[in-house]
Amino acid sequence: MDVLWYLIPLALLLGLCGLGIFVWTIRSGQYNDLDGAAHRILIDDDDKPLPDSTTIREEK
Amino acid sequence: MSETLNQIHDFSAYVEINEYGKSCLTLMVEGVHCAACIQKVESALQQLSYVTYARLNFSTKRLRVEWDGGAELARDVAETIRRQGYGVHPYDPKAIQAESDEEERQLQLCLGVAAFAAGNIMMISVALWSSTIEVMGIGTRDLMHWLSGLIAMPAVYYSGQPFFRSAWSVLKHGKTNMDVPISLGVIGAVLVSLWQVLHHGEDAYFDSAVMLLFFLLIGRYLDFRARRKARGAASDLLAMMTGTAIILLEDGTQKSVPMRDLKEGMKVLVPMGQRIPADSQVLSGVSEIDTSLVTGETMPRAVKEGDTVFAGTTNLSAPLQLIVKSAAHDSLLSEIVRLMERAEQGQAKYVRLADRAARFYTPAVHTLAALTFFGWWLFGGVDIPHAVLIAVTVLIITCPCALGLAVPVVQVLASGRLMKRHILVKSGDALERLASVDTILLDKTGTLTIGRPKLLNRAGVTDEQLQIAASLGASSHHPLSKALAQEWSGDLLDMQDVREFPGQGIEGHFNHKRIRMGSRAWCGNKDAAIDGDQAFLQELWLQIDAVPVMSFKFQDHLRDDAKKTIEELKALGIRPVLLSGDRQVVAERVAAELGIEDVSGELSPVDKFNRMELLRRDGHHVAMVGDGLNDAPTIAGADVSISPASAIDMTQNAADIVFMGDHLGAVTEAYRTAIFSGKLVRQNFALAILYNVFAVPLAVFGFVTPLIAAIAMSGSSLVVIANSFRLTRMKG
User: Fold this and answer.
1) pLDDT exceeding 70 applies to what percent of chain B?
2) Contact between residue B499 and residue B508 where contact means Cβ atoms under 8 Å apart
3) Higher model confidence: residue B722 or residue B298?
4) What is the SS3 assignment for B304-356?
5) How many degrees, rounded to 5, is the angle at CA B437 between CA B431 and CA B440?
6) Best residue of B15, B19, B38 to probe chain A, by most A CBs closer than 10 Å
7) Number of independent structural domains in chain A
């Protein structure tokens, strides 16, 4: 059962990483315009990621 | 219309300066519907040297622009977008929707936390279920339980907030809703499990509690997204009436004042192409007025001295001097706003199916749990903690997991299905309300008809004639000129000295020839035979060097499938009623052609609203289909409302369902989907209840273990979801 001592913390850590990333995606406004994201993929030009604009900071 | 709006909006007033010294502006952009539009708007703005940030949110049609420099550049920014062919309106980001944005983000976070916790606790639970106490020993089991608890308790505390808050707020008022048994079940499960773990108990229900929250949050989030609706349609209209008007002072000088400061008796000057600021009377000038915003009619009305004009209409062809008859807050437009606000309040009374289900479900569940507790404690011979444990499993098992998903999943799938057919469902319960409709009110212009005059005799016109006419009309706001411009896609001729003669036509010079285009009386052949029906037909004569050459004939035509749609509606048992602001004869003609028996013409916006109220009072469930501002109050007040995407924004905002394209068949399509969704929702409820019939006895008699609870809960939810997916296989 010794394996539990590091496997469980490891599993939880991975889960927490996932959660952390999810929280970050919400906070950086990636769910604000789901329909737009579906359309933007069709634009040929390189669509730069959102700059860390003052807007995002404000919306927080 | 939007062109004239832009002239009166003072965009710089909406600019904010942020802490980095940049000017920020949020605009509503009209007419964005594809990737190319996003790109066009954004790249046009990025080409301005001072703009540092431009991002268009496609879902909300809001554009955020930031730039280096002062607020005065706002006008150029707005102008840049307008030159790309999109309408822009200023938008106050603080006023609207900030609240619901925050709520959505909170739900997403709760959902994320619940998903994390449910996944990790399940990992531990699977280990517990697949082993026995003899194999792993009591120490390992306690460790597993403690770990589950340590993940579950903070997660429940955080993710349960939306339910706890809602439950507490109704309990305070001595009422109950679906969130009360949910909260009790979840909190009870956590507390009992904690007690079990402290006493080295066998069963812990942390997994059930968290999984329950996870499923319910999915339902809650879907429901929230479906219900989110552009709120406060009335405030949009008032925003239209912000701006300035030019008044004439006693000494003959002109002064610009805000529209809301206009008082009775003031003299106002309204230039061509601008909106009339208040209900007033014409003092001098002859012009044509675009009344489409107020009456819904596309043809301009000629006005002369002494005529009354209403706020919100647009002066088309010549400057007018007006005397204000009633201040802005007494105008017809304000009356419409008031009606809309009243109507929106009336709508709030509708009780959704899910809430009606909660009304009998909640007390039943609580009684059952209480009976179980007392039964085991008094007659079952167990101690109080054990009796509480069994009562809580009853609460967990009956928790309306499947019920919570029954409605939102169907709504989301139905909206998705209609979206693919270019029908946008804006409020979640719209389909629920549509399914109960027995009367449908239809507006004429723009709803049953396309709403734009179309050239009828294209075959009888040479390209040269069309080119001359289109070039001459290129600068005019008149709908007939616009119709000509739409027919002609080639080059335009360079017309000299173009002048507009109000109520008569346009004159210009080309190759030293005087060219006139206008009414029969002004430049036509008075003796030419009138072919066709006067009530429908409009003609425009072309005259070159005082010789009438030919006439263009226009007609607003019915939507292709209008007749078929009306027949289908009748076959479905819905009574169509035609309510028009147009003349009685015209309304009757259209009604006869379509087979509508109940028809009224010459109705004001208030008349339409009253007709709808009357029908509702008689117990009818009324749907309204309309597009103009004159329909807006009726749209807001009807049980459910539909408007074409060509409608003015205000009406679209108030409507529950918006359809794109020229086919009225969208109405029957939405109705059939609504009926089928209703059936699925009822089936889902039946499935959820059926599940309870089997699971509850098990729980009451104490046979439910954490494993059974987990299987039962996810099983019932999956069955409900699977049943809802039948919607995607609906024919048609």
Assistant:
1) 86
2) yes
3) B722
4) CCCCEECCCCEECCCCEEEEECCCHHHCHHHHHHHHHHHHHHHHCCCCCHHHH
5) 110
6) B38
7) 1
Alpha-carbon B342 to chain mean position: 18
Report pLDDT for A58.
Answer: 44
Residues B389 and B192 sit within 8 Å (Cβ to Cβ): yes
What dotted CATH number matches B451-557? 3.40.1110.10
Is the CB of residue B353 less than 8 Å from the CB of residue B432? yes
Please say if the pLDDT value at position A59 is more than 50: no
- ipTM at complex level: 0.77
Q: Indicate whether B230 pLDDT > 80.
A: no
The answer to whether the Cβ–Cβ distance between B53 and A51 falls below 8 Å is yes
Residue in B179, B279, B443, B649 annotated catalytic: B443
Q: Residue B286 is inside which H or E element, if any?
A: none
Top CATH class, B2-96: alpha beta
The residue whose two tokens read 């315009």 is A33
Q: State the Cα–Cα distance between residues B205 and B188, nearest whole angstrom.
A: 10
User: Can you give the residue ranges of every domain in chain B?
Assistant: 2-96, 100-227+353-409+677-729, 236-335, 423-438+560-660, 451-557
- At the topology level of CATH, where does B423-438+560-660 sit? Rossmann fold (3.40.50)
The second-level CATH assignment, the architecture, of B236-335 is Distorted Sandwich (2.70)
Active site residue B533: no
Parent domain of A53:
3-59
Whole-number pLDDT of residue B654: 76
What is the C-alpha radius of gyration for chain A, rounded to an integer number of angstroms?
A: 18
**How large is the greatest C-alpha to C-alpha distance in chain A, in angstroms?**
55
